[in-house]
Design brief:
The chain has about 575 residues and is an alpha+beta fold. It contains 16 helices and 13 strands. Strands 4-6-5-11-10 form a five-stranded mixed β-barrel, surrounded by four helices. The longest helix is centred in the last third of the chain and has 33 residues.
Length: about 575
């Protein structure tokens, strides 16, 4: 018989279980230490457990862009929404696509969550358009007579303030700030100063100013005037339809609110777009004490802004105004008194929150698509706590049933299974906690379900190994060789079983979205950890305990009693040759 090769361990040899067990314990301690070092002692909870809001947005193409809803634009929109929400300081927000035209936004309950909800679907299409005509937003309203108040000129000694109050006439005109900001004026004062005929076409004996150029008399212009006359800005549905049909290179209608009063506009083609804005920040105007949004333009945007303000500064009201249009609504319509270039400001009836919202939106850019809010689901923190409590109870019941079964059937071997389950639970908890700040993993209710299912998967691996050991004992082997000979056979079965579970989890994670991915991710993670625990903890522990008297002696409470298992002495081949029976009856 050939002697075994040197340096090659025979199949079933015990190896070095102590070293393997020490490496496993070091890895476990490192994970737990990292958890404490990162200051994360509990896993991050998803919206269904911690409370929050889930918003489903449906994308739709803008006019003239039939194929705009594509993967590239959807991914761009996801990135912009993420930056908007995170820019408000909201933590753990999740933004992901669902299907080809839906975006799911999960906003946990907390600071600025309501503010973030208002921003997620805002398209933020920003344009600077010259004002051509201005009128009251309610068609039933009566326009004040042209002589109700004198028309202020660009060099007038008084100019209306943003609040509507006039400055003293003897106060010299304020010089522009270094940032060359624009000063907004109340729309009601501009309306009183406008001496152009009303768009409604009503009879008026007041002649139009000679420097006011009438639009060309073509069908498009006539239709625009007719739509302007019929436009009711007090109707929310009518206001919402304006932005859908607006094109940057064509005149359009728009509505704007000033001091609670709606005004309507005919606006010229866009001269400057939101892409020309380099940065925007909310700040307080030191002269008026009001919140404003300061904008810095790009190089190309500065040239465009300088060109349009140069033209507008030579016009009379309201043609010396440019409207700042955001998603089809006029947020501000300041008058231009001088040529501006690099910087500008948006002034209006801003609060701190609304100014910060607008600055945040402009800083991170406009969405490439228009989104409609399909569904909004809000989960309170109390309901989330109840769901988490119910999930933990279900997990505890499942774990208790598994332990009871192991103790009744495997007796002493159940101690090894329980310790292995505890090791798996510690590693799972530590990894889930670290994945929160690492990749933004949040534990939701389906993920808790996946962890509960994993208890059965892990226990099944122990059962496979224990049954293989028992089979070896039934064949007449003692415990120590039975442990080593059973391992190769059990190992193959465990790997095949866990591979099938992991494959199912990977497919489920790939083809699903939202909360179901939490179940698949947890199931896959715990399946991998099952292999790690069985290979690097359960097997070394079993090898060590096989050397103890309690287990190797085959006591009745060890779970390895040969008599209870029905073990038989090993069969030996007989050297005596049996003769064939001669009697036909015996045959």
């Amino acid at each position: 018989m050939a002697a075994p090769q040197k340096g090659r361990r025979q199949t079933g040899a015990p190896g070095k279980p102590g070293r393997t067990l020490i490496l496993f314990l070091i890895a476990m301690i490192a994970l737990v230490g990292g958890m404490f070092g990162a200051g994360e002692l509990t896993p991050r909870l998803g919206i269904d457990l911690a409370g929050g809001t889930t918003i489903t947005l449906k994308a739709k193409s803008s006019p003239g862009q039939a194929n705009a809803v594509n993967e590239t634009n959807m991914n761009t929109a996801v990135g912009i929404i993420e930056r908007r929400v995170n820019g408000l300081g909201v933590q753990e927000a999740e933004v992901q696509t669902q299907g080809s035209d839906n975006i799911i936004v999960n906003i946990p309950k907390g600071t600025n969550s309501e503010q973030a909800r208002e921003q997620v679907g805002t398209t933020a299409q920003l344009y600077f358009r010259p004002v051509l005509t201005l009128g009251p937003g309610d068609p039933a309203a009566t326009q004040p007579p042209p002589d109700a108040s004198p028309a202020p000129s660009a060099d007038s000694s008084t100019s209306p303030s943003p609040s509507g109050s006039d400055k003293p006439a003897d106060k010299p005109a304020e010089s522009p700030s270094p940032s060359e900001t624009t000063q907004g004026r109340p729309l009601t004062d501009d309306l009183k100063a406008d001496a152009t005929p009303t768009p409604s076409g009503s009879a008026s004996d007041t002649p139009a100013p000679s420097d006011t150029a009438a639009p060309p008399a073509d069908p498009a212009t006539e239709k625009l005037q007719a739509d302007f006359t019929a436009l009711d800005c007090t109707n929310e549905k009518a206001r919402g339809a304006l932005g859908d049909n607006a094109k940057p290179d064509q005149p359009t209608l728009a509505c704007g609110e000033n001091d609670g009063v709606w005004e309507k506009y005919i606006l010229g083609p866009a001269e400057v777009g939101g892409k020309d804005v380099d940065d925007a920040n909310a700040t307080i105007n030191q002269q008026t004490g009001q919140w404003i949004v300061q904008m810095d333009f790009t190089g190309g945007g500065s040239k465009k802004f300088q060109s349009i303000t140069s033209k507008l500064s030579q016009q009379q009201a309201p043609q010396n105004q440019f409207a700042i249009v955001l998603d089809g609504e006029v947020v501000s319509a300041p008058s231009v008194r001088q040529t501006l270039s690099a910087n500008a400001e948006i002034s209006g009836n801003f609060t701190q929150e609304s100014a910060q919202d607008l600055g945040n939106i402009l800083s991170y850019g406009a969405l490439p698509l228009t989104f409609q809010e399909e569904t909004v689901t809000t989960v309170t923190a109390a309901l989330g706590g109840e769901q988490l409590h119910a999930g933990l109870i279900a997990g505890a019941i499942g774990l208790a049933l598994v332990i009871i079964y192991l103790v009744l059937y495997y007796r002493g071997l159940a101690l090894i299974a329980i310790v292995s389950l505890l090791a798996s639970a510690v590693m799972t908890y530590a990894i889930m906690t670290l994945l929160g700040p690492g990749i933004g993993f949040a534990l939701n209710l389906p993920a808790v379900c996946g962890a509960i299912v994993a208890i059965g998967i892990t226990a099944d691996s122990f059962i496979v190994y224990f049954e293989r050991i028992r089979d070896e004992i039934r064949e007449g082997r003692t415990l120590r060789p039975a442990v080593e000979r059973a391992w190769p056979r059990a190992r193959r079965t465990i790997l095949v079983s866990d591979f099938v579970s992991f494959l199912a989890a990977a497919v489920l994670f790939t083809v699903t979205v939202g909360k179901v991915q939490g179940f698949a991710f947890t199931l896959g993670l715990t399946t991998v950890l099952d292999v790690v625990v069985v290979f690097f903890f359960t097997k070394p522990v079993m090898t060590l305990v096989a050397r103890t008297k309690f287990f190797s002696g085959g006591g009745s409470w060890s779970g390895l009693d040969p008599k209870r298992l029905g073990a038989k002495p090993p069969l030996r081949r007989s050297t005596r040759r049996l003769s064939a029976p001669t009697d036909p009856k015996e045959a």
